Amino acid sequence: PLPVVAIVGRPNVGKSTLVNRILGRRAAVVQDTPGVTRDRIAYEALWNGKRFTLVDTGGWDPKAAGLGASITRQAEYAMNTADVIVFVVDSSVGATDTDLAAARILRRADRPVVLVANKVDDERSEANAAELWSLGLGEPNPVSALHGRNSGDLLDLILDAM
Ligand code: GDP
Ligand code: MG
């Protein structure tokens, strides 16, 4: 089986945009990944000749389960199944209570957690990323999923963590 990279984070932080950025044109939905249900979509991805499974965990309806419960479920799923967990935060908003709750869970993970400070679209926004050191998950990696800024460096980092 391919290494699994799970993307977790609150709604609207840019998880799906990041997934699309990583997949480029090679998007392919993987049906047979264990534990993947309607609210977790798995794709087969390729970077630098290395194949891996990318799981976008954000498909559920947060209002149905309650946002806190959803994030907890998502983080626990990732900790049980992924080889690398990518935790995405919206750096233009900063760390919310929900982000802090997810971070508290993810700090206990026995596998690498890559912290993404998304929506750093330009140099002026870099300072927003630095504030996410407060999540206690190490260095925040500034990225713009929308424009592709630093997304190659992020992928290198994810593959190194496998
Ligand atoms: P998800 O709910 O976490 O999957 O978030 P989405 O990928 O659906 O993105 C939510 C919104 O944030 C959309 O309007 C995106 O266009 C926007 N977005 C995502 N990434 C970025 C980014 O890097 N910069 C900016 N400015 N907007 C972004
Ligand atoms: Mg999404």
Automatic annotation (TrEMBL):
Function text: GTPase that plays an essential role in the late steps of ribosome biogenesis.
Top-level taxon in the UniProt lineage: Bacteria
Residue ranges annotated for the EngA-type G domain, each copy included: 3-162
Residues involved in GTP 1 binding: 9-16, 56-60, 118-121
Species annotation: Petropleomorpha daqingensis
Coiled coil spans: none
Name of the molecule in the record: GTPase Der
Subunit record text: Associates with the 50S ribosomal subunit.
Family, per entry: Belongs to the TRAFAC class TrmE-Era-EngA-EngB-Septin-like GTPase superfamily. EngA (Der) GTPase family.
Lineage of the species this protein comes from: Bacteria, Bacillati, Actinomycetota, Actinomycetes, Geodermatophilales
Gene name linked to the record: der
